[in-house]
Write a structure and sequence with these properties.
- The protein has 422 residues and is of the alpha/beta class.
- Among the domains are: 17-137, 3-Layer(aba) Sandwich (Rossmann fold); 223-259 and 317-421, Rossmann fold (3-Layer(aba) Sandwich).
- The protein contains 17 helices and eight strands.
- It has helices spanning 32-44, 57-66, 73-86, 112-121, 147-168, 179-196, 203-215, 233-237, 239-242, 245-251, 261-279, 283-310, 319-327, 341-351, 366-371, 376-382, 399-421, and strands at 24-27, 48-51, 96-101, 129-132, 225-231, 254-257, 356-362, 387-393.
- The chain has a four-stranded parallel sheet. It has a four-stranded parallel sheet with strand order 6-5-7-8, with helices on both faces.
- α4 (112-121) links the parallel β3 and β4.
- The termini are far apart.
């Protein structure tokens, strides 16, 4: 008797509200400190979520078994993380779901849903795939986003960014090893409690606490090479996707400079506004997004002022400044994947004392090869000291080869730094 083949394009389990009280939702890890806060925010809304921390080679191997190796590497990583977790025996498969975000753009990331469903259909056909998006995709299997939850997630991203920003400017200089980690972990727990108590809107007060906590860490006065990390959003942030690039740079006695996640959120918002100007898209939608942009950008301006007034740390980039940087290199109509945001971040880093950059991209990611690797010559013509290495991440690329390429970039950085100091 032939085994029934699941039609994963139609016959797949759909998420519905009744599952909220019965199902555990597995979430792939991209930004560990952000996602710990975001996960607890979702828990407060009644969702039983777990941020996956399985990051061994077996995760990549599972991804390779179920996703074609020419498919976008982040899809392979998150699919492998799901399947590795589901095979662990830790979960009741009849009461487990997996969650993935969708931006709604032309990047393959918006199409991961079908790929994940296909991967799960043979061994885990009862596990629904849940979408988080603001584009009206997957209406039958999408997490309902109330205005209150949307606002809470926005605050969570801001606070996660602030912790990441201060941590990376503290960790390389701490006098006592592990101090910055303890401060970071303590702040994450503090913020979780602030959300639980409904005090998450104390934006200035909570960011002041983050800044002061890291500023109190005893620091050395040794100058270190600053290295920016830009590129496709998953491999830019996720330790699984970039072989813990941030940790490698710290081990090389460098200061990682990682742009804020909120910049990507603002990028997505602005692209909808630009769609109206460039392509005549819906005026009502553009009006709503302009309102949201003013609110979020206003928060960012307050945060930047806070950093400048306190004085210990470099302030995050102003998003309008990023847009101006983009205009020097690439039109803002180029919005597939991370589009114009990549050269914008590389230009802004060069203009603010971070000429050394790792451009992380999944192998074969067309938007990143065009908007990232493809703009390097223009950027080097604009900024003579800009020192950029484009690094491909895929299942066949060895960690040693990737790190050796970065070490060559760092050798040039140290040579340039010595020339400037002399």
């Amino acid at each position: 008797m032939k085994e029934k083949i699941i039609d994963y394009t139609n016959e797949y389990p759909k998420w519905n509200d009744s599952m909220k009280s019965t199902h555990k939702i597995l979430i792939p890890n991209m930004l560990p400190w952000h996602f710990r806060i975001i996960g607890d925010v979702l828990w407060q809304e009644g969702y039983d979520v777990e941020i996956l921390e399985n990051e061994t080679r077996s995760v990549i191997d599972e991804g390779l078994k179920h996703v074609h190796n020419d498919t976008c590497y982040p899809c392979l990583c998150v699919t492998g993380q799901y399947i590795d977790a589901l095979k662990s025996g830790k979960y009741d498969l009849d009461k487990t779901a997996v969650l993935i975000t969708q931006t709604g753009g032309g990047c393959r990331a918006s199409n991961y849903m079908s790929l994940i469903r296909k991967a799960l259909s043979t061994e885990f056909p009862q596990v629904p795939v849940l979408s988080v998006n603001f584009s009206g995709l997957e209406k039958g299997s999408s997490l309902k986003m109330s205005l209150k939850l949307f606002i809470k997630l926005g605050y969570a991203i801001f606070y996660g960014d602030s912790i990441m920003w201060c941590y990376n400017q503290t960790k390389p200089y701490e006098k006592e090893n592990g101090t910055a980690d303890r401060v970071r972990d303590g702040l994450v727990e503090f913020l979780i409690q602030a959300f639980r108590k409904g005090k998450y809107k104390n934006f200035i007060k909570l960011n002041e606490k983050i800044i002061k906590a890291f500023a109190s860490v005893e620091r050395t006065d040794v100058k270190k090479i600053k290295v920016g990390i830009v590129g496709e959003i998953y491999v830019k942030y996720a330790h699984l996707g970039n072989n813990n690039l941030e940790g490698f740079l710290l081990s090389e006695d460098c200061e990682p400079v990682i742009p804020a996640l909120m910049d990507f959120m603002l990028y997505c918002i602005v692209n909808v506004i630009n769609d109206r100007e460039y392509y005549g898209h819906n005026a009502g939608t553009a009006f709503i997004y302009r309102y949201v942009y003013r609110k979020v950008y206003g928060k960012q301006k307050k945060l930047i002022k806070l950093y400048k007034d306190e004085g210990t740390f470099e302030a995050p980039h102003d998003f309008e400044y990023l847009r101006a940087c983009a205009d020097k290199v690439l039109n803002q109509g180029v919005k597939m994947g991370e589009g114009w945001l990549i050269p914008a971040e590389m230009a802004a880093l060069a203009e603010t004392g971070v000429p050394n950059i790792v451009c992380a991209q999944p192998f074969g990611c067309l938007p990143n090869h065009i908007a990232g690797k493809g703009t390097i010559r223009t950027l080097k013509n604009l900024y003579k000291n800009e020192n950029i290495v484009a690094v491909d991440y895929d299942p066949s690329a060895t960690k040693v080869n990737q790190e050796n390429r970065i070490k060559l970039m760092l050798a040039t950085a140290r040579e340039n730094n010595g020339r400037i100091n002399n």
